[in-house]
Amino acid sequence: MGDQMQFIVEKLNQEPFRKNYNLISFDSLESLQLLQLLSDVLGEIDPKHAVDIREELPEQTAKRMLNLLGILKYKPPGPVSDLSAFRQGLVTGSKAVIHPVLHWLLQRTNELRTRAYLARFLVKLEVPAEFLQDDTVADFNKQYEELMEAFKNLHKEHEQLKISGLSTAEIRRDISAMEEEKDQLAKRVERLKKRVETVQNHQRMLEIARQLRLEKEREESLAQQKQEQKRQLFHAEERLQRAQVQLKEMQQVVADSKPESLMKKLEEEINFNSYLVTEKIPGEMESKKTSVYYLEKVVAEPAMTQADLTALQSELDEVNAQMNQLIEKRMITYEPTDSKFSMYRQQASIMSRKKEAKAEELQAAKEEMSSLERQREQKSSQAHGLEGSEVLTEEEFKQYVSKLRSKNTFYKKKRLEIAEITAEYGILQRTEELLRQRHEAIQQQLQAIEEKKGISGYSYTQEELERVSAVKSEMDEVKGQTLDNMSEMVKKLNAMVTEKKASLAPVIKELRQLRQNCQELTQERDEKKIQYDSCVAGLETNRSALEQEVKGLLEECAQEESNYHYINCMKRNVEIQLQRAKEEMKTYMSPDPQERRRAVREQYTRIILEQENLGKKLREKQKVVRESHGSNMKQMKMWQDFEQLMECKRDCFLKQQNQAAIGQIIQEGGKDRLVL
Questions:
Q1: DSSP letters along 401-460, please?
Q2: How many whole angstroms from its chain centre is CA 465?
Q3: Which own/partner pairs from 147-153 qualify as long-range (CB within 8 Å, at least 24 positions apart)?
Q4: What is the per-residue pLDDT across 444-485, written as a single tens digit (0 to 9) for each?
Q5: CA–CA separation, 251 and 258 (whole Å)
Q6: Of 130, 449, 553, 603, whose CB is crowded by the most CB atoms within 10 A?
Q7: How many CA atoms lie within 13 A of 191 on its CB side?
């Protein structure tokens, strides 16, 4: 207990509470102060509970705290029967109840804060079945469940991204590096296309190269399939060997087992199942039926007021007093034989409770074992379906994780080196392109200078020499002079190029410094953007939390207004009923007979007398009907027989008439034949 209080005091003195307590001051806190302290801790976990308990009723405070503790899945120490004592202690601010709650909350504040945040979105609203019959309500409920599932998935992805350790700056750098690689590859493809277009039959060669690539890819896939099938065959052989080993072990177990041991196990199992069927389960069913009966009875009763509760409490006190008196009388008339029987009964009850407890423990152990077996089979089947191999052991998994981490570190390092080399390559390529453009510009300037100096076409000097070889002897002097001029011009041009390079060197150096500054500024801008995004996200979260809190307060206000109007209506109804009761009492106690007749009691008395007289008449009529029932039934039977007899005569008469008509027609037909 001292360690618990020490831990609570240390946590309360830290951020964000800063209470400056010591053990003596904390132990001397009153019940109201303890409740306010518990409310502050709950408010740190869930901001909706950061309220002043002096502004709400004790019942509301206890209900609010119990709801949040239920959401946080707090289990009070002790058996289940002490839950009522826990609630009572929470209402009264008992130290024995609040200190364990504070210790439990302060041990896992971050975890409980996350759980409380998720509870705002994942605690499902139960909609009654009769409302779900409406299509609109059913559609909204379905959309609500889908949004809840989507929130679960997004939260899981968010947590996985937090654990993975990836930063947005690193992702952006990777994206920019990949975009640069993409641009470089696109340029390279364009250059290769231009080179290939000059080759004859390049389309046919491209088609052959594509077919070669497809065949190589197919060969690689076939090799991978072959390797995969070899691995699957190896795992299948391993599983077969393990199954054979298990079969041999089971055969040995069956061979070593004796009928006596099997019969003993079966008898134990039969005894346990018979105990469950005959004693435990019927008792539980009876207790459940009794509790359901009492709950239905409580639900069927009207709402109870404080006066009703006071009356019931007084009746309960009277019954308890009577029970105490009976116990005292029994103790006075105590006999030794009763003590022996009570001792035996006590021992029997203790043994029965132990038996029930052991049976429950055995049943729970069996259920847990079966659930663990199902989970093991499910996990093994999932592992077989995914990898086709057995699950790694703990040591093997640790080695695999360490190798994977080292490979990941090595991969990131190499990827960073590749990115740096790629960036440097892009810079060099751009420098080469700029130098090429400058070279072309210098060539154009050179051509212009050659044209200006009269030595146009120096690059084609060799062709000109071959063309004018026939007149070489005539132009020796002119050629010598021209070569001297050209050498002088080349020297001048080389001097100009050197001068240009010297003048461009500081510009290139400054450009490199500016590029480096640009990269630093870009990185700083990315960091500031990340800070801005996180700040915006935090403000948005706070705004949504405040909106939810305001919405909850508005709903609570509306609920309180509804309760207020309902209580006023109930009060009005009770006042009307009380007024009617007073008027009825006044009318009933009046000395005037005429006024007394207007009383409701007198009216109902007259109605009861009239109904009793009517009942007597109906009973007399029923007696007469019963007495004449036999003769009336005989008479009715005679009339039914008479009716059947008359119907039979009518049928016979009709048949006779039909036969006479048919005979007459036959006779007339015979006479006609004779005449003919």
A1: HHHHHHHHHHHHHHHHHHHHHHHHHHHHHHHHHHHHHHHHHHHHHHHHHHHHHT-TTGGG
A2: 89
A3: 148/121, 148/122, 148/124, 151/121, 151/122, 152/122
A4: 777 777 777 766 655 545 445 555 555 555 656 655 565 566
A5: 13
A6: 449
A7: 6
Can you give the residue range of the structural domain that contains 536?
A: 483-616
Residue 29 burial by Cβ neighbours in a 10 Å radius (0-12, 13-18, 19+): middle
3-class SS of residue 340: helix
Contact 19, 13 (CB under 8 A): yes
The pLDDT value given to residue 408:
83
CA 116/CA 16 separation, integer angstroms: 18
Which tokens sit at 633? 């039934």
CA 158 to chain centre: 14
User: Does a structural domain hold residue 658?
Assistant: no
Residue 483 pLDDT: 59
Residue 165's nearest CA partner among 405, 511, 483, 479 is 405
The pLDDT-based confidence of 671 (bands split at 50, 70, 90) is low
Asked if residue 568 belongs to a domain, the reply is yes
Number of domains in the chain: 2
Nearest to 138 by CA among 146, 317, 398: 146
| Alpha-carbon dihedral 292, 295, 297, 302, rounded to 10 degrees | -160
DSSP secondary structure letters along 363-384: HHHHHHHHHHHHHHHHHHHHHH
**How long is the chain?**
676
What span, in angstroms and rounded, lies between the C-alpha atoms of 602 and 660? 80
From 572, 588, 616, the end of a domain falls on: 616
Helix (H, G, I), strand (E, B) or coil at 22: coil
Calpha distance 165→575 (Å, rounded): 69
Quickly state the pLDDT bin for 676 (edges 50, 70, 90): very low
Q: Quick one: tokens of 156?
A: 């899981």
Say how far apart CA 500 and CA 502 lie, in whole Å.
5
- Spatial separation of the C-alpha atoms in residues 427 and 519, rounded to whole Å: 13
Cis before 76 (ω within 30): no
In 3-state terms the chain splits into helix, strand, coil percentages (rounded to 5) of 90, 0, 10
Whether 641 is in a domain gets the answer: no
The backbone torsions φ and ψ at residue 277, rounded to the nearest 5 degrees and listed phi first, read: -75, -40
52: Cβ–Cβ under 8 A, 6 or more apart, which residues?
36
The tens digit of pLDDT for each residue in 290-322 reads: 888 877 777 666 666 677 778 888 888 888 888
Cα–Cα dist 522/515, whole Å: 10
Q: Measuring CA to CA, how many Å separate 465 from each of 237, 452, 460?
A: 84, 21, 9
Query: Does residue 271 sit within a domain?
Result: no
**Rounded average pLDDT over 153-165:** 73
The residue from 563, 593, 616 where one domain ends is 616
